[in-house]
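Predict the holo structure. Ligand: NAP.
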Amino acid sequence: MTKIALITGANKGIGYEIARLLAEQGVTAIVGARDEERGRAAAERLGQPYVRIDVTDEDSVAAAAKWIDGAYGRLDILVNNAGITGGFAPLQPSATTAALVRQVYETNVFGVVTVTNAMLPLLRESEAGRIVNMSSELGSLAMASDPESPFGAFNHLPYNSSKTALNMITVCYAKELAGTPIKVNAANPGYCATDLNERTGFRTAEQGAAIAVRLATLGADGPTGAYLEDAGSIRW
Ligand code: NAP
C-alpha cells in the first residue's frame, strides 16, 4: 500500500528535499506549506499533492487534517519540519526579548504540538506511523555546555532553546506512544545551506534531508525517542 506522508514547510529547503526523496521511494509526499502559491508551485514541481498548513494557526492545521482524512483516511509519516530562527544576528540572551522567544516557539515548539495532536488520529490509522521532528545540534544541552564542542559558542537563546524543547517533546510523545506502532524521533540534519542561515551551511539540503527520510521509513525494529544524525545517535 502506498505510504502517505505530510511534510510541513516543504515548499523549500530541507523540507522540499524530504518530500522529493520520499516521493522518489514511491511515498505520496503531501507538500505542506503556509503560502498557497509557493506550496502549489513546489508540489507541482514534485508531482505531489499540496495542502495549506500554517503550523501557528490551529484552524489551518485542523483543516489540513480534515483534508488528509477525506483524501486518504490515514497518515503514515509526519515530518515536523517547518522552523524559523528569529534571526541569527549577534544577540546575547540579555538582549533577547521574550516576544522574540515567543515568536520562535510559536513555530518550532507550539506548532509541533498543534500539528502532532491534529495528525495523531490519522497516524493511529497507519500500520506503522512515523513522526520525525526536525531538531538541530544547537538544541543539544550536552554540546552547548561542552567547551570542546564547535557549537558551544553559538549562544542563540530563542532558536537553541526551542530545539531543546523539541527534543523533550519528542521523548514525551515517544513515551506516550511506546505501546503503539508509532515511532517518534528527532533528526539533526547538520549545517545545510538554506534560506534559514542565508545559505552559509556546508551541507546541501538534500544531505540534511537524508536522516529525516531514514527515520520516516524506519522498520519495526527501529528506535523511538531517539536523537539521530547520519552517523548515529547524538548527545542530548
Ligand atoms: P528554510 O529553508 O528556511 O525552510 C523553512 C520552511 O519552514 C519553509 O518552507 C517555511 O515556509 C516553513 N515555515 C516557517 N514557518 C512556518 C509556519 N508557521 N507554517 C508552515 N511552514 C512554515 O529552512 P531549512 O533549513 O530547510 O529548515 C528546515 C528545518 O530544519 C527547520 O526546522 C530547521 O530548524 C531545521 N534545521 C536546519 C538546519 C540548517 O542548517 N539549515 C540545521 C538544523 C536544523 P515559508 O517559505 O513560507 O517561509
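The chain has a mean pLDDT of 97. Residues 8-9, 11-15, 33-35, 38, 53-56, 81-84, 107, 111, 134, 136, 189, 191-192, 194-197, 201, 205 surround NAP (CB under 6 Å).
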